[in-house]
Amino acid sequence: MRQGALAAGLALALLGAAPAHLTAQETLADLRQELQVLKVELMRLNRELVTTGGPSAGLAGSSLPERVALIERELRRLTAKTEELQHRIERIVADGTNRIGDIEFRLCELDPKCDISTLGQTRPLGGAQIAPAPVSPPAAPPPSGASELAVGERADFDRALAAHEAGEHARAAELFAAFLETYPGSPLATEALLWRGQALEAEGRSAEAARAYLEAFSSAPEGPEADEALYRLGLMLDELGQREEACVTLGEVVRRFPDTEAAGEAEAARARMACQ
To answer: Which of 94, 165, 191, 274 measures 20 to 30 Å from 31, CA to CA?
Structure first.
């Protein structure tokens, strides 16, 4: 009876832990998950190897040590692939952060009110430093109230937006700046930066508007406002006489956010600018 149960367990192990064939579409999370599954399977098979004391007559032809060795090889392959993808991500983040830092410096040079010595270190693209992370189970979901707004937060945002829509652009820019200072890390922060940029743009303060758009994009490069923020940044760079940088930025809108309204507008703007 015990031998039959063990044979069934081994059959499931052999079927369930077949080597995975990675594709170009697999993400780092996929690899980590698969790595975790294989590690668990390896631990289970190792325990079974110790407790059974060797194959029984009912398991003739099955080779548990070979199966363990196969899983170990697969673990090594997946670990190497994970590290490779991690390094690629770090290079992309570093390159994007350097480009954003360069644009920030250029914009500061164009703004008489900007003090270059106060710029500080550019925040990494995406808002957080990428670092190798150990394989772990999926993170628990955030608490249900994690994204709730503070008391008065929505009202302050709506007040600034109403001022902008009423044509009081200078006041709107001040209100949005006060909002961002009062509610750091707000779920509405990126949207507030985008609207502040539009208010500054309406006031003819192109350099300040460009900095607001850049901050809006770099704070959430995959967020819902990212395409419009990057598109408007490209327009402001052209307004400031930075045609080459404007063309590159608008090209990034098309590359990053295809099939969006912002991408279509960016294509039209590039045509007007005769971008190469």
So the answer is: 94
- String of DSSP letters for 170-192: HHHHHHHHHHHHHSTT-TTHHHH
Domain that holds residue 174: 160-276
Q: Who wins on pLDDT, 178 or 53?
A: 178
Q: Which residue has the higher pLDDT, 47 or 53?
A: 47
pLDDT for residue 94 is more than 50: yes
Contact residues for 31 (Cβ-Cβ < 8 A; gap 6+): 22, 78, 81, 82, 85
Q: Is the pLDDT of residue 56 over 70?
A: no
Q: pTM above the 0.85 mark?
A: no
Q: In the structure encoding, which two tokens stand for residue 266, read together?
A: 């960016």
**Start-end of H helices in the chain:** 2-16, 28-52, 64-110, 153-165, 169-182, 189-202, 206-219, 226-239, 243-256, 261-272
CATH code, 175: 1.25.40.10
Angle at 112 between CA 106 and CA 115, to 5 degrees: 70
Average pLDDT over residues 140-148: 47
